[in-house]
Amino acid sequence: MFEGLLKGRLAVVTGSNSGIGLGIARELARAGSDLVLNSFTDRDEDHALARDMAKEFGVEVRYIKADLSKAEEARGLVEKAGRCDILVNNAGIQHVAPIPEFPTEKWDAIIAINLTSAFHTTAIALPMMRKAGWGRIVNIASAHGLTASPFKSAYVAAKHGLVGFTKVTALETATEEITCNAICPGYVLTPLVEAQIPDQMKTHNMGREEVIEKVMLDRQPSKKFATVEEMGGTAVFLCSDAAAQITGTTISVDGGWTAL
């Protein structure tokens, strides 16, 4: 449906060698966008992933290592890209613990990677977009950017902050051909989530389907995982001309979670 829609654009997608980030990158490539993939590792398989995607979709794909917990590396990622028509701030980590027991270093890392890195990448990308006369920023927030759960203080704070930052970015670019929006996923079936299912089965003494429905998707009324392809399709739509007047808002892809 979106084939060729983004031909000639360059997208920088943070945290994109697996999971949601990779799913979004693949759909952007399918729509014709050239890509910069990113994570904090610098393995042969990271660069091989870029080569394989380039071959599969017929676009230019590079992999650039950057530790997004560090301001200079977050900014350097976009600088090394050379241009940035589309910026997808996706990189994120998680830790679960009660507030009194939440490790300070985990709080600092989650805020840095999930929230502050988006400020640094956006600060470098916006002048590039203004020079080009066009730009799209898509921040991957979460249902936890709109609601909360216990024991996820840093993650919820960061994702709420990312939604607020999305609105400010949209207001500062409102008269330009630049938009900024946030996608708020619920539970998405990624390799990381898939790996949690066996442990949840043991913990709750349930079968696979029962633990998915009653434990993992307890707050997701559809009782279905969202997919990385759906995240990617939503991102491509937000980058399209059809979404030119959609800015400063959130799009929930959460099976009805935030409707409760």
From TrEMBL:
Pfam families, A to Z: adh_short_C2
Identify a single GO molecular function assigned to this protein: 3-hydroxybutyrate dehydrogenase activity
Tell me the keywords, alphabetical order: Oxidoreductase
Family that this chain belongs to: Belongs to the short-chain dehydrogenases/reductases (SDR) family.
In Swiss-Prot or TrEMBL terms, this protein is called: 3-hydroxybutyrate dehydrogenase
- Tell me yes or no: is Oxidoreductase among this UniProt entry's keywords: yes
**Entry EC no(s):** 1.1.1.30
* EC supergroup of this enzyme: oxidoreductase
